[in-house]
Amino acid sequence: MFENFDAEILARIQFAFTVSFHIxxxxxxxGLASYLAVLEGLYIWKKDKIYLExxxxxxxxxxxxxxxxxxxxxxxxxxxxxxxxxxxxxAGPVIGPLMGYEVLTAFFLEAGFLGVMLFGRSRxxxxxxxxxxxxxxxxxxxxxxxxxxVNSWMQTPAGFAMNDVxxxxxxDWWAIVFNPSFPYRLTHMVIAAYxxxxxxxxxxxxxxxxxxxxxxxxxxxxxxxxxMAAIVAPIQIFVxxxxxxxxxxxxxxxxxxxxxxxxxxxxxxxxxxFGIPNETEKRxxxxxxxxxxxxxxxxxxxxxxxDGLDAVPDALEPPVTIVFWSFRVMVALGFAxxxxxxxxxxxxxxxxxxxxxxxxxxxxxxxxxxxxxxLAGWITTEVGRQPYTVYGHLMTADSLSPIAAPAVAASxxxxxxxxxxxxxxxxxxxxxxMGRLPRDPLEPLDEGPIRTxxxxxxxxxxxxxxxxx
Length: 469
Prior knowledge:
Mean pLDDT: 85
Number of strands: 6
Distance between the termini: 75 Å
């Protein structure tokens, strides 16, 4: 099925496939870890056991998602060695230490406190358990920080020099870590993770409200999720705008592809809402556009000139069609999230937040929207960087291992089969967990014996009352 593809395109497809699976799990676990910390903090503050019920409900889902995120992430380092060894050799002196710091700080922190968070509340006490939950949440944020620093350096490289054998060597670690796009990219990604989690939690709460089961528990998680959507979605749109301005400064060709600007516009560029990019004829067919609005958004001036891809050599153009549509999917979902958040505020003001079936159905439909938006944003970022791995310095074609196409195709097919089986089963299990009701953690289980022997002491004849003596 891949006989017409060369090794480079197959390696790119393989990396895109595996990282697409991987990115959705950290995006969920980053937000969910912080949500768990908020739930436990509210329980300590208000002494309302409903927050403890929700904590125990979501911590199991977090554990499964966290595990799948770790497993799917291991494959990335495997590909750096097999498919992208030239990139690893040339960029390794810079990205290697950063990825090592992620393991030494974030992963050790998460792994060290995860067991306490999942199983240790009755053993270490509530205060120390809350500290462990905070450390897990903090660890996920540190992990995102290091990984986004690596990726941002590849987008906007700084603080390096080239040695005699063509390697990137560090000169200024502060400039490397805090490269020009890093603050915008990190903020945008973390907020995206929080919104992703909010809409998953909101969808689960809305689902149980529609079914009429556990209305107080479902209503609590739904209300918290809608607050997050209403407050954070507009912040994300603002941060996205700032990130776009930074991208225009440092990666203008990516902006040209996102906007569909094949031609330069010396007197103000239109905002193309929809259309079909025609990369052969260098135009957008059937374009629906608003005159000069792109110049207003990107340069805050209706008449500001904007360069197009006609100012860029064809060999340095990114794939316009993919970037054009992925960007629009991300933006459309961002505004849809904002719409749901604003609608929830209106329902809250009207006192119908827990009764409005229309809002609940919208929340269920929007449940996976965060994952789709994260994937669309990642595609926009990574495909828009092409044809470079290190923007402006190292071409993707020059980063490939000396490997034959059939070998890459074989591993790609293996990944596809294994990923859909393993992560499909994991996702199905998570959905099953979400369909269950949050349980009171202080109530005994009613699912039969809990001793491994199959018999509890209280159920044996002669135990209890005067017969026990």
